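Section 3.1: Structural characterization of target chains.
Under the original work plan, the team committed to producing a structural model for every single-chain target entering the pipeline before any wet-lab resources were allocated. The record below documents one such target. The sequence was received from the expression subgroup and is listed exactly as submitted; it comprises 65 residues.
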Amino acid sequence: MCSIYLLNEKEEKEEGLSLINFYKDKIEIDCIFNKKGKYIIYFLGNKGDSFLYNQALSYIVNVVY
């Protein structure tokens, strides 16, 4: 699971779409950004059948076009 937020000076605003594909030996994540700007992508994970998701890692992406 992942969430995409647009970063600005005042707040984080949820923005963008993602598609996650799971393969035998890799995970492929495609992100669609609606406009230019700096985004943070939070990747969330859980253990087993738990409905509780925790942040596993995050990336900051600068979209310039």
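The chain has a mean pLDDT of 80.
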